[in-house]
Write a structure and sequence with these properties.
By secondary structure, the protein is α+β, with helices and mostly antiparallel strands. The protein is about 25% helix and about 25% strand. The chain folds into two domains: about 90 residues, no CATH class; about 55 residues, no CATH class.
């Protein structure tokens, strides 16, 4: 919904209050003014662009356009836009996820993550293994994991 009038602000505020109530967070977080201050009872006397409303709730904290979150599945940070945030609370975190690891051939490796075109991150290396695409943090991460798997498949290593 595009905000063009004071009544639009009231409707967005009502939706934001419902979102806060649904997630059990303080109603004072339902509106932000000038991207800094929270206000429990806004009078909407400023220009409509001064107000922003939460788009979702992640980890019991409201998420606004411009906030930075981490995609847990892929492990990269992104900036929240106006796009619909349907599964945001399950796929995202305010904190950088700790990398998962596995032991192969006696060495500890960072587990690569599966990726899809919708999760594409140009800062990571993507590679297919057995027809499945995976993200690797960097070339060293890719090389180490690849070499361990090749050694295992060539009979030069063990689990």
């Amino acid at each position: 919904m595009t905000t063009k009038s004071k009544s639009d602000l009231h409707r967005k505020y009502a939706d934001a209050l419902d979102l806060c109530d649904k997630h059990g967070i303080e109603r004072s977080f339902a509106v932000r003014i000038d991207e800094v201050d929270f206000c429990q009872y806004p009078d909407f006397s400023r220009h409509f662009k001064a107000y922003s409303f939460p788009l979702a709730v992640v980890e019991n904290k409201p998420v606004f356009k411009g906030d930075k979150l981490w995609n847990i599945a892929v492990g990269f940070e992104f900036t929240v836009t106006d796009s619909p945030l349907t599964l945001l609370d399950k796929n995202c975190s305010w904190e950088k996820p700790k990398p998962k690891t596995f032991i192969l051939n006696g060495d500890k490796h960072i587990l690569p993550t599966r990726c899809s075109l919708s999760e594409y991150d140009p800062h990571k290396i993507s590679s297919g293994i057995f027809g499945i695409q995976y993200y690797f943090n960097d070339k060293e991460h890719y090389d180490n994991t690849r070499n361990a798997i090749v050694n295992l498949l060539d009979g030069k290593g063990d689990l």
